[in-house]
User: Which sequence fits this backbone?
């Protein structure tokens, strides 16, 4: 079997990026992907591997802030092939530019970037599609990952970004990054909450505390929407627009996987 010595790092809210990272790892015969979240406390993250992948969701037409902070810590060998795989639901924006810049803090920049269109989880604007549509999107995503595996083995130069800097787009992009971590003030919880604590367990950055059996958000939010999508009682809303918009997670990704990403003991978690 063609084997690549690779480090694959991922960040995920609803499992799409983890499913992609796992498929990549299997196709490259690489070790299991590692959560970026586990490396956020150290000053640097070092890897000696010749192939390094960062797999993440597009958030507001760019990489999530946590992914950029992770990339700034990353040290790789001079000759390493460093590639990004950005999962997205509608428009991937500038999925790679800022990542390239962040990587250059401690390493050379991005060698290649690839997009994977899959199920859109941004329910403040887009209702979840029907199950059949979701299945088709995931199958398309799997097929795309298989093509990326071939490209990576051939040291491909990647894809162009789907991005044009227009005035309205620029304003949206910049405003979405402003006060990102404290926008969790928009979360609210309904009377359906039974205090189970799942939201706190899946939060990758420990941003949720239970106070009198109700979640309280502490303004370190990364906007991954894991809490909202994984709540078994559908008791979490964002602003006024997520009611009846559906909830989602990738069917191959379990609650235990999310708890593992968050770095907390998974003994009380049940399969999602
Ligand atoms: C806060 C937020 C912002 C998003 N912004 C975009 C976007 O700009 N363009 C897009 O195509 N999808 C966007 N999405 C959808 C995700 O990129 C997509 O569903 C992704 O596959 C989710 O990956 P995950 O399951 O690994 O978290 C956004 C999702 C969230 C939660
Ligand atoms: S996951 Fe949902 S039901 Fe459980 S504590 Fe959080 S908001 Fe309440
Ligand atoms: S509070 Fe919710 S949206 Fe924010 S980082 Fe935690 S799980 Fe993600």
Assistant:
């Amino acid at each position: 079997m063609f084997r690549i010595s690779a480090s694959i790092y991922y960040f995920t809210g609803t499992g799409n990026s983890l499913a992609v990272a796992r498929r990549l790892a299997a196709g490259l015969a690489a070790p299991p992907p590692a959560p970026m979240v586990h490396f956020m406390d150290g000053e640097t993250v070092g890897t000696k591997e010749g192939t390094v992948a960062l797999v993440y969701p597009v958030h507001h037409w760019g990489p999530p802030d946590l992914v950029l902070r992770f990339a700034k810590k990353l040290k790789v060998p001079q000759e390493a092939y460093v590639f990004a795989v950005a999962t997205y639901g509608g428009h991937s924006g500038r999925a790679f530019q800022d990542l390239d810049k962040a990587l250059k803090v401690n390493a050379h920049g991005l060698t290649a970037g690839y997009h994977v269109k899959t199920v859109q989880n941004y329910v403040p604007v887009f209702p979840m599609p029907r199950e059949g549509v979701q299945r088709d999107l995931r199958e398309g995503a799997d097929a795309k990952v298989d093509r990326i595996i071939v490209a990576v083995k051939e040291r491909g130069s990647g894809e162009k970004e789907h991005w044009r800097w227009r005035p309205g787009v620029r304003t949206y992009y910049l405003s979405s990054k402003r006060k990102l971590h404290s926008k969790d003030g928009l979360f609210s919880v309904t009377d359906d909450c039974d205090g189970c604590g799942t939201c706190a367990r899946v939060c990758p950055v420990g941003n949720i505390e239970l106070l009198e059996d109700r979640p309280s958000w502490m303004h370190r939010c990364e906007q991954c929407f894991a809490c909202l999508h994984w709540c078994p009682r559908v008791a979490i809303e964002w602003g006024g627009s997520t009611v009846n918009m559906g909830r989602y997670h990738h069917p191959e990704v379990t609650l235990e996987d999310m708890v593992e990403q968050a770095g907390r003991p998974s003994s009380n978690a049940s399969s999602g």
